[in-house]
Every structure is written in C-alpha cells, then in structure tokens.
Amino acid sequence: MAILLCSIVDGSVGEVKEGTVAIAVKDITAIGYYIENRVSLESPDELNKTIERYKHINSSYFSDYTMVPLRFGNIVETEDEIKIFLTNTYIQLKALIEKVKGKVEFLVQIKIDLNAAREKVAQLVDITDVMAVGKAFFELAETHKVEVSGALKSGLSPLVVDYVETNKINETQIINNSYLIEREKEDAFDEAINTIAEKSDDVLAFHYIGPLPPYNFVPLEFSKGGFELINNARLLLMLKETCTLNDVKINYKKLSREYHPDVNSGGEEKFKEINEAYQIVTAYCTLKNTGECSFTRDAIESSFAIL
Predict the structure, then answer these.
(1) How far apart are alpha carbons 34 and 4 in whole angstroms?
(2) Model-level pTM?
(3) 7-55 per-position pLDDT tens digit
(4) To bridge 132 with a disulfide, which of 102, 125, 254, 302 should be the other Cys (CB 3.0-4.6 Å)?
C-alpha cells in the first residue's frame, strides 16, 4: 500500500472523511488516501479514477478548511514520510496557507466558436481559397484575443488578487486564465464575467469554472531545503542576518512601493517575488516568536524539529 497526498489544510481535522488519512505536524495537516501501489497508476483506467478521487477529496475538504492543494502524483510509502515532508516544508506551507486564506480560484476559458467564425470569414474571403481562409481565421482569433484580454484586465482587476495564464487546451481556445479572488467577491466576479461576455462578439464562447481550490497559486519547490528557501527570501528583502519583524515590514513596504506595477511597468515579476518572500519570512519570524529573528543556518534548521 502507498499514500497519495492530496492537500495540506490549515489546523487540525476534526473529522476525517471516509477513505482518507489525515497526518498532522504542529498546526497543519496533510490529507491523502491509500492506493494499492505506484504501479497500479500505469493503467489508464485506474489513473483516471485516481485523478477523479483526488479532485473529489480536495473539493470535500475545501469547503471547511483553508487548503494548499498538492500537484497530483505525490506518493509516499509511509505516514512517517508525510511527517518528514510537513516538517521540512513547514515554513513554506504556512506562507502558502496565509496567501490563499479566504480565497478561491476561478478558471476562465474563452474559445472561438467555429460556426460563427466560418460565417464571419465567408463574408471576408473566398471560402474555397484555403490559404486565405486560414489567414482570415488567424487574424480573427488574434483580434478577438487582444480585445477580450483587455476587457478581462480592466473588468476583473478590481476583484482579482492574482492570476495566471495556463496552457491552451486546443487551437480554438484563445484564453485559459486562472484567477484568485476573495470568497466574498464571488458574486461580483460572476457579474463582471457575464458583463464582458455580453459585450463581446458572438464569435467568442465563454466558459468558466469555480469556485475551486487554488491549484494554480500554491506551487511547492520540493527541491529546496528550509535554509535555502528562507535565506533566499531574506536576501530578496535585503534583510540582515538578524532583524526584527518590524525591520521585515519596513523593507517590504519600501521594496513593494519601488516595484509596484503602478509605478514600475517592468516590475510585475519582481513585485510578485517580493510578496512571496515577505510571506515566507513573516511566517518564519512569527514561528520563532522572539524579539529578534536569526537567519543563521542553525536557527532556521532548528525550526523544523517536530514538536
């Protein structure tokens, strides 16, 4: 037997749902379930069933807990391995939990309606000219992609905490974006999407899914140890090896103002990195619960001892 990890939830789980296992370290809990073995997932049918169960389990816990869903495929052999994983990534997990607390993900997909597009193209070029038709389809898709991307940016910006562009499913799809929003803004988000869809050309077909666990907003870097993760965050925030939580806030505010997209058009990625570093360092300093926070290797690695 093996355990497929599904997610990490904030706090302890009062009631373990049927067919799942909950392993806690400190104040976070890993949720998973038993599978026969890794080899069993080589069967396409068994793999599909396992993926569907993984999604179902995450959805069932998502309504009651703040959740960091793990990418599908994290399999361990024993419960002790889960405890080691939680211990070694505790600071990072706490930072990610804080990032998504009270938030949900919505997936917005927009594609070209082929029937409507054919009618448009037929009015522009000779439908028997294959090259002309192909060029017209491409130009039509690109024009609408630019227009709807602008509409989404202006219409959703006040409601969105973060967003990512994910891979397109097929050639007819022009938008496949995931949005992270506050739970309390779900109705406003619905209304904004409907308004954009109503104002868009009928050649576009809108589809959106949610609320979902924040699958696209909590990537875990399993290759990094605790020291490298926290020390890199400290360096990004330009902090000394020993500092106070107030020092962290001061440097964060200074750097976030400098790289905020509203004042630095090329600072979007840096701004996001600064925010992630701040969440990690804040989680670490809060855990240490001392006046001054030390970032030496010994101090950081000692924070990973199971209590």
Answers:
(1) 6
(2) 0.76
(3) 999 998 888 887 889 999 989 999 998 887 667 677 788 888 888 999 9
(4) 125
